[in-house]
Amino acid sequence: MVRKQKHGRREGHIVVGHKENSDPIFRYIHAYMPKELTAKLRQNITAYQGVDLTEKCRMRLSE
User: Fold this and answer.
1) Which residues pair with 27 in a beta bridge?
2) Residue 44 contacts residue 29 (beta carbons within 8 Å)
3) Can you tell me the distance from the alpha carbon of 25 to that of 9, in angstroms, rounded to the nearest whole number?
4) Residue 4 in this model has a pLDDT that exceeds 80
5) Which of 27, 28, 51, 60 has the smallest number of Cβ neighbours within 10 A?
6) Contact 6, 14 (CB under 8 A)
Protein backbone atom coordinates (compact mmCIF):
# COMPACT_ATOMS: atom_id res chain seq x y z
CA MET A 1 0.00 0.00 0.00
CA VAL A 2 1.24 3.48 -0.86
CA ARG A 3 -0.09 6.82 0.30
CA LYS A 4 0.96 10.46 0.15
CA GLN A 5 1.51 12.22 3.46
CA LYS A 6 0.73 15.87 4.23
CA HIS A 7 4.29 17.11 3.86
CA GLY A 8 4.82 15.53 0.44
CA ARG A 9 6.59 12.32 1.34
CA ARG A 10 5.13 9.03 0.28
CA GLU A 11 4.81 6.10 2.61
CA GLY A 12 4.56 2.47 1.65
CA HIS A 13 4.27 -0.59 3.82
CA ILE A 14 4.62 -4.29 3.32
CA VAL A 15 3.48 -7.22 5.46
CA VAL A 16 6.50 -9.26 6.56
CA GLY A 17 4.89 -11.66 9.02
CA HIS A 18 2.08 -12.17 11.49
CA LYS A 19 1.74 -11.97 15.26
CA GLU A 20 0.37 -14.81 17.35
CA ASN A 21 -3.12 -13.26 17.19
CA SER A 22 -2.93 -13.11 13.35
CA ASP A 23 -2.34 -9.32 13.20
CA PRO A 24 0.12 -8.39 10.44
CA ILE A 25 3.67 -7.18 11.09
CA PHE A 26 4.43 -4.22 8.83
CA ARG A 27 7.66 -2.62 7.60
CA TYR A 28 7.30 1.02 6.56
CA ILE A 29 9.29 2.69 3.78
CA HIS A 30 9.42 6.43 3.04
CA ALA A 31 10.53 8.39 -0.03
CA TYR A 32 9.74 11.67 -1.77
CA MET A 33 9.58 10.36 -5.33
CA PRO A 34 7.15 7.59 -6.38
CA LYS A 35 9.77 5.76 -8.44
CA GLU A 36 12.20 5.78 -5.53
CA LEU A 37 9.53 4.38 -3.22
CA THR A 38 8.63 1.67 -5.71
CA ALA A 39 12.27 0.64 -5.98
CA LYS A 40 12.65 0.51 -2.20
CA LEU A 41 9.44 -1.51 -1.84
CA ARG A 42 10.59 -4.06 -4.42
CA GLN A 43 13.97 -4.35 -2.69
CA ASN A 44 12.30 -4.96 0.67
CA ILE A 45 9.82 -7.45 -0.76
CA THR A 46 12.62 -9.56 -2.23
CA ALA A 47 14.67 -9.28 0.98
CA TYR A 48 11.81 -10.50 3.18
CA GLN A 49 10.58 -13.16 0.74
CA GLY A 50 10.69 -16.59 2.33
CA VAL A 51 11.47 -15.23 5.83
CA ASP A 52 9.03 -16.28 8.53
CA LEU A 53 8.88 -13.43 11.06
CA THR A 54 7.01 -13.58 14.33
CA GLU A 55 6.23 -11.02 17.01
CA LYS A 56 9.30 -11.99 19.06
CA CYS A 57 11.70 -11.75 16.13
CA ARG A 58 13.84 -8.59 15.87
CA MET A 59 15.38 -9.30 12.46
CA ARG A 60 16.59 -6.24 10.57
CA LEU A 61 16.73 -5.89 6.81
CA SER A 62 20.55 -6.03 6.84
CA GLU A 63 20.39 -9.50 8.43
Assistant:
1) 14
2) yes
3) 22
4) yes
5) 60
6) no
